[in-house]
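Appendix B: complex inputs.
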Amino acid sequence: MVHQHTVAQGETLLRIARQYGYKTSTALYNHPSNAEFKALRPDPNLIFPGDIIKIPQKTEKFMPLKTGSKNTFVVRDEKEYFRLKVAYDDGEDIAGKRVVLNIGSQTIDTVLQSDGLIEVELNNNDALTGSVDLYLKAGDTTPTKSFAVQIGNLDPIDTLSGVQGRCNMLGFNCGKVDGVMGEKTRIGVKEFQYQHELEVDGIPGPKTKAKLQQVFGS
Amino acid sequence: MSTPHSMPMVVNNTNLLTIVKPAFVFLYQVDTNTKNYAKEQLVLVNNQHNWQQIKPISRVIPEGDWVRIEFTDIPQSGNFDLIQDPNDGQPTYYIFDNVPFSELNKQTPKTVTMAEITEE
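Resulting structure:
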């Protein structure tokens, strides 16, 4: 019997897999019963509330073991990461700027290198919410900019909320990420289109979405 | 979807967070029937008169009769005036005056109409 799981906001494929006793997300994602889901969501890190994932029943495996010798079992495990790249819009070097990340139970206080990249291994049971504090001016004791983050909440590019989320991250303010096409979203999309020499109509059509996906990286 | 002021991010993939430096973008309609319109310039100046930035119209590419003018690296305190200078000996005009930094990007041609421009 195949059980079904309906994706809720903020869930990740690995955490869903763990709920059902699987160690890896690929156990679900690559299972033949999820071929339709895999076609719909070509990136397993970008799933959407309401997506249906089939949970295959776990089957017993019989392993031939030798008596009188050592038998080694390797358990495959998967980790989740939070990866952030911070950059200035005008290309100025971000090296040396202090960043404080609070993700779940972890606090990472670090200084950015030129590539602006930070990588954090997420704890299995931690909440996927937190904050990013940026100290962009030397000697600042309070953050120059602060953001609340919700990991696992970025929606696929084919959704309006996915467009809003990416635009906001890239500095084109679409306001609240709510999947509603309001005036702020229209202006944010227009600004993005203008900057990337697309037709400026405020409508996130296929060309705008493709460019947004390319610029953001996923 | 998320609550306001929070950033939805993706697990495992890289999230690109772009820091936008303080800027003010103003969409400005040029009267192309005016003989010397290409000489015009817009001046953003703070009330303390120790910072100003001049943007000549001729340096931006017109989109029809609209131009998009971007002022950058603006000090984030104090109030600002935006002045239209015909730069041909004619009087200058205030497009707006005494606007705090936080309100700058709310000053659009929708909220400041040409009829409201006052002579200096």
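The mean pLDDT of chain A is 94.
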